[in-house]
Amino acid sequence: MVQNSELIPNRHRTMKQVFTPPYRQYPRLKLLIGLMLSLIAAIAVFITPAAATGVYDLPQLNAGSSTWVVDQAEVISLANENKLNNSLKSLAKNTGNEVRFVAIRRLNYGETIDSLADSLFSKWYPTPEEQTNQTLLIVDTLTNSTAIRRGEAVKPVVNDEVADSIVNESVAIPLRDGGQYNRAFLITSDRLVAILSGKPDPGPPAAQEINIESTFTSAEETDDQSATVWVVVLLVLATAIPMATYFWYVR
């Protein structure tokens, strides 16, 4: 009887150990599991692509709206956005000509910068009367592609040659020179305000005459490479930690 009474507690302890979850027996295992879940969540954040933008992802504006800059890409500083807003607001008040800038992160699949510009111009200004004094400029920061749309009253002043120069020089030159979005929008704003106010065209920014091909990676390429390295590191950790946890637990 003594032997049986001694065996019963041992049996109870054994059964309790069997049915106790491993993470309660081993606090370190619980910590490692939490770390693994955190790593998986971090990987999901890193590999999630930036949200694409279509015409219905942009706010609804119209002729006379007090919004002049829509910066969904977040490439314009607050100070410069205020400068743009003040300049474009004054232009509209003094001349009746309205200019709006839009910056997006990337286009929807199958969308082009021109198709988005056409759709947005028609959506914001659905009638010829609303379009007549409007100018819209859109920049896709993923590809740095740019499009400009003008109303009928604007086209004689900002003719096709000037419009092409604005897209291919006023915007493109600062973007090629290290992705200077603030400079690109400020230069473009100053140029459009001058032209639409009846002043001489200040022209595009001067491009460097000597263009030596750089052997260094661009800022965008560096960002892409850094993101890739982080994803690889996190994937390796997410694989190695569960394996190490398993072997440690088995041992």
Automatic annotation (TrEMBL):
Pfam families: TPM_phosphatase. The keyword Iron does not apply. The chain crosses the membrane at residues 31-52, 227-249. Signal peptide: none annotated. It comes from the Bacteria. Keywords: Membrane, Transmembrane, Transmembrane helix. The keyword Membrane applies. Residues 69-194 form the TPM domain. NCBIfam families: photo_II_Psb32 (NF047379). This is TPM domain-containing protein. It comes from Rippkaea orientalis (strain PCC 8801 / RF-1) (Cyanothece sp. (strain PCC 8801)). The lineage of its organism: Bacteria, Bacillati, Cyanobacteriota, Cyanophyceae, Oscillatoriophycideae.
